[in-house]
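Worked Example 4.2. Consider the chain below.
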Amino acid sequence: MSTMALKSQADGLFRRKRLVAFGLPALIVVYLAYIVFAFDIPGLAERARMDNARALVADSYSYKTHVTRDNRSGDVSIAIEGERKGAYADGTAPAWVTLGDQTVIDLEDGHVVRFAETGVSYDVPGFGLITAEPGPRGVQTNLDPENVPDWINLSKNRMTITTDAGRVTVTRNRTEVFRYFAGWELFFFTLDSPYHGHGAGEILFGPRIDPARGNIAGALHDFWHNAMWRHAEVAWAMFETVLMAFLGTMGAAIVALPLAFLAARNFAPLGALRFAVRRVFDFVRGVDGLIWTIILARAFGPGPMTGALAILFTDTGSFGKMFSEALENVDRKQIEGLQSTGARPLQRYRFGVIPQITPVLLSQVLYYLESNTRSATIIGAITGGGIGLLLTQAMITQKDWEEVSYYIVLILLMVMLMDWLSGKLRQRLIAGGR
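Applying the procedure from the previous section yields the following structure tokens:
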């Protein structure tokens, strides 16, 4: 080949490399630019409500105590998170609320709200006194509707004041004040429990608090049956989630193993049979688990068993494919050695094949068990079972976002536990470690 030809060939190679080096990044930039406009990223940024985001974040690690007055009857009620299960008894209130002819709510740092006979006043440091008079014609205030700060939302029938100290909402029928506190209040005991407000030291080593029960037994009972946080229901939901994952994964492994022999080339010489079984595997694993969940929920109704069946259907196809590939790679010498001793086909499979593929089987099954523990959370939200249902209900209401945080923490702990447990089992069963 001449020198000119070699030079031309080298130039062509360098041009292709330059095209790839510059063209591929340019193509990625064009694609990202297309995504920005196709998914309306600028519009999404404009529609983002950062105030709502801050409220949700605050709700995840804190709680609100509501002080509510019925503007028609004048009755004042106080409840944590506004729930009846967290309501203070009539005539009782936290230390920062003074009941009487005029209810005074001290939000600290100079923020004071007063419920007068008919009106409401809020003394905001650095701004002044805001008054509101709810009535049949709406909410009358001393504010200029054309000149209100951003932290006040004012309309004819509603006024909302949001400050760092709390929030005040006044409508025709109701006036509500709530104040944030850090922590998950009533997580251990509700207000009606005699153990509320007592520390662990008092319960474990102090005198008997409830004359009818021992401290430890009574505290455990009240904690387990906490009406606000429902620890007993949550524990059962966690058990249902793990049970769905376990039944679905193990059931899929049991169904897939014998079918895998029919899909393996060295165990099923009939090509038509192998083709049919493999297409069944492709079908059941090709349909996503959530789709199977919807179909089976329509056929069998909601419940944890439906979720387990959905996992079983999807994993049967995955296990069948992996098990058949493992069977095709077994060492024939062990099988031939057993055959020479007069072993029957089932005995050859049991003692010559299964021991070879057991590490692969156990490794895949335990990995899928760990993965399905996460999937069972989403599946449970659709089938009406497990911790996924409780998580979905808490997210839909958006009333107690700290419950969402609680469930997410439990799900993370459950997944971490399953990860650790599956690792230990793999080490013990496959590697023979301790």
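The chain has two domains: 64-182, 231-429. The longest strand covers residues 62-70. Compare this with Example 4.1 before moving on.
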